[in-house]
Amino acid sequence: MKTDIQRGLVLRNEKCHEHYTTEFLYNLYSSEGKGIFDCRINVLGHLQQGGAPTPFDRNYGTKLGVKAVLWMSEKLQQVYTKGRVFANSGDTACVIGLRKKVVAFSPVTELKKVTDFEHRLPQEQWWLNLRLMLKMLANYQISLTEYISGQMEHVTRRTLSIEKGF
């Protein structure tokens, strides 16, 4: 951890041990790090939003999990030399997800270049070019000569009232 590359990963099953909880491991690594490295907790179940997962969600999550573990095993074999792991290239820290209908691993260094961190969104979003068509289908009164496709429009929130018809 004292080298240029300062990343590590601890995977823990929720039923691995009654005393070695996620909070315990976080506190242990945080106190032992002493400024050399920092820690974060990322419990995958807590990231999930939107209610109960469907069977499709569970199946897809299982497939992504298998691909991630296979990818990690392959990377570990590639960077293992003389009893040590040298994970010092950009493609050793990746995020798995869909990219143009294909499950792909995106290096974090590449994602950093295309991410709007303030709004937690990609800088370019493919669906923005569809907004003109959506407005046409919804019978919005728009001017086609002034409309700029592919730019985010900011909407101001109005107060809701039954008298004004929302």
Automatic annotation (TrEMBL):
Superkingdom assignment: Eukaryota
Phosphofructokinase domain boundaries: 7-71
KW Cell division (keyword) present: no
CC terms in the record's Gene Ontology section: 6-phosphofructokinase complex; membrane
Alphabetized UniProt keyword annotations: Kinase, Magnesium, Metal-binding, Transferase
Transcription listed as a keyword: no
Gene Ontology terms describing biological process: canonical glycolysis; fructose 1,6-bisphosphate metabolic process; fructose 6-phosphate metabolic process
InterPro entries per record: Phosphofructokinase_CS, Phosphofructokinase_dom, PKF_sf
Reaction catalyzed: beta-D-fructose 6-phosphate + ATP = beta-D-fructose 1,6-bisphosphate + ADP + H(+)
Gene3D superfamilies attached to this UniProt entry: 3.40.50.450, Phosphofructokinase domain
Stored Pfam families: PFK
GO molecular function: 6-phosphofructokinase activity; AMP binding; ATP binding; fructose-6-phosphate binding; identical protein binding; metal ion binding; monosaccharide binding
Name the UniProt record assigns to this protein: PFKAL protein
Annotated organism of origin: Catharus fuscescens (Veery)
Gene this protein is translated from: Pfkl_0
